[in-house]
């Protein structure tokens, strides 16, 4: 719910309180965590399967070398997986820390919203119903 949030900060586009707007945007940004994490998990699983399928046939003759090859590739993927998870969390925290309402792309949306919602509407009463003979 949006409460009455008037104070030192001005409203966004005349009718939307900026604090309420930022609260709603931050809520939406937080919802990105789960799908982003799922995406990293899915890519990791796919890359792991690809690395196992792409191993050269010559390695089958050398079991120790093949096992070491698998260990190194799995270790590298795991390290990148952890780094990707950390980066996604950092990006979400960055986005939550500051909502840039002065960005040019955002200002264009503000003009559209202002024209749509802020300007007074021309409401006219509907014409009276006509009686049928």
Major sheet: 2 strands, antiparallel
User: What's the β-strand tally?
Assistant: 2
Domain tally? 1
Shape: elongated
Give the N-to-C terminal Cα separation: 51 Å
Strand proportion, as a percent range, falls in: under 5%
Query: What is the helix fraction of residues, given as a range?
Result: 55-70%
Compressed to H and E, one letter per element, the order equals EEHHHH
Q: Please report the number of helical segments.
A: 4
Return residue spans where pLDDT drops below 50 for at least 5 consecutive residues: none
| pLDDT averaged over residues | 79
Radius of gyration: 28 Å
Strand order across the largest sheet = 1-2
Structural class: mainly alpha
Pfam family, one: Dynamin_M
Organism: Hemiselmis tepida
InterPro entries: Dynamin, Dynamin_stalk
Protein name: Dynamin stalk domain-containing protein
Explain the layout of strands and helices.
Blueprint: E1 11-12, E2 16-17, H1 18-30, H2 33-53, H3 63-97, H4 104-118
Antiparallel strand pairs: 1-2
What would your notes on this structure say?
The chain is mainly alpha-helical and 133 residues long. The longest helix has 35 residues. It has one domain. Strands 1-2 form a two-stranded antiparallel ribbon. A hairpin with a 3-residue loop joins β1 and β2. This is Dynamin stalk domain-containing protein. InterPro entries: Dynamin (IPR022812), Dynamin_stalk (IPR000375). It holds the Pfam family Dynamin_M.
């Amino acid at each position: 719910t949006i409460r009455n949030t008037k104070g030192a900060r001005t409203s966004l586009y005349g009718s939307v309180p900026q604090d309420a707007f930022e609260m709603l945007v931050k809520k939406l940004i937080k919802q990105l965590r789960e799908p982003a994490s799922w995406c990293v998990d899915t890519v990791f699983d796919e890359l792991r399967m690809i690395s196992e399928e792409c191993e050269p046939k010559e390695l089958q003759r050398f079991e120790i070398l093949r096992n070491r090859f698998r260990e190194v590739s799995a270790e590298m993927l795991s390290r990148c997986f952890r780094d990707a998870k950390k980066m996604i969390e950092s990006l979400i925290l960055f986005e939550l820390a500051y909502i840039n309402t002065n960005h040019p792309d955002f200002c264009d949306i503000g003009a559209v919203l202002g024209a749509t919602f802020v300007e007074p509407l021309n409401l006219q009463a509907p014409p009276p119903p006509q009686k049928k003979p």
